[in-house]
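REQUEST
  id: r-88c1
  op: predict_structure
  target: NtaA/DmoA family FMN-dependent monooxygenase
  payload:
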Amino acid sequence: MSSSSAQPTGRPRQIHLAAHFPGVNNTTVWSDPAAGSHIEFDSFTRFARTAERAKFDFLFLAEGLRLREQGGEIYDLDVVGRPDTFTVLAALAAVTERIGLTGTINSTFNEPYEVARQFASLDHLSAGRAAWNVVTSWDAFTGENFRRGGFLPRDERYARAQAFLDTARELFDSWHGDEIVADKESGRFLSDPAAGAFRHRDPHFDIEGRFNVPRSPQGRPVIFQAGDSEEGREFAAATADAIFSRHATLEAGKAFYQDVKGRLQRHGRTHDELLILPAATFVLGDTDAEAGEIAHAVRRAQVSGRTAIKLLEQVWNRDLSGYDPEGPLPDVDPDPGEHTVARGRASVRSVQDPLATAREWRQLAEAEKLSIRDLVIRTSARQTFVGSARTVADDIDAFVQARAADGFILVPHITPGGLDVFADEVVPLLQERGVFRTEYEGATLRDHLGLRVPRPGAAAAEPAGVEEAAAS
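RESPONSE
  id: r-88c1
  status: 200
  body:
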């Protein structure tokens, strides 16, 4: 099956769509009566079945390894936590049939044998629908939950992540196929003596033994990577089947797309071997004007006064609880020190120069007469697609045809029912114009994504295609 990035002449590029169960964050409008639990299995089931009904490629789960803190207290939006990723995905495998199951699993505080065994098992249980989003962790705060505590510098995190993934691939590939044969007369199993045998030694891992899960339906789970740094882009170009990006404007998307795709050749890969799938939010209305009004209300619900102060503290690196969120920005400058007022959030490190950011924000607030809350709403993430169903379908299609993305991972602001309106109104329009499937054509996630099953020992998925763990 060919990838969406290599369509026959005259045929529009096919769109990939996925659904992100958003975890715990300020994207979800908790105050909406339609907002449900983020831990009860019924929520996951409804969300996954809606995505499967709409013929989406996969469901995506983020992961949090520790409740985040701010000012020494658990951040209020994190109180409910997240269930274990493998437990949820394994359970979903039993109540779905075709949709891919993608889990975010950390390479900094886990071990290759354990993770490879879990993903290979999930791939068998789901009949070839498993995918792994490989991430790293940057902070000692998260590391305190693990025996190997502390943290790794950025270059060492990526070196460990690469070694981790290389080791996991060796484990996946330690079985080449049908090495086990049942001898019914003797009641014994005959096996290749080399089946599952492995030995890996590098500065990070020194392991040897026999991998006890035979080769799975996809050969290996699909590998995702989420990141935008130089190291993250290079890591994805070398190893990933898909990259989960944050570039949601057309021009930024095209630049990112060209940059990452342009790195593939030096790793012996083609453009077809890596899909670029930005995260995207959406707000739908009967008209574009109505959708705009709803989007404005959603943003104000997402950023309450208290949340605005919390988010500003992450840039200022100070306690700002005494400031009025409807008032002006603080006169005091951010604290550029090494300590952080928020712990366990990768986003805190995303502001490279807080003093420069503060100057820019003060100029913006003065020019547009913005309060703290208004400014945070203005500068924080906004809805990617806003409009009627037809407008949103047009915009999504335009992104993919312009090679600004291969598709999108959709993050609704209501869980679990927020995906329903997209499935019912936008998907049929994409199907009508021939850019999105009306039925699944294959059984595995590699089939959905247009990725071939890799040969044992191949560095990456053959043509058909880590950044810090995101706080989501």
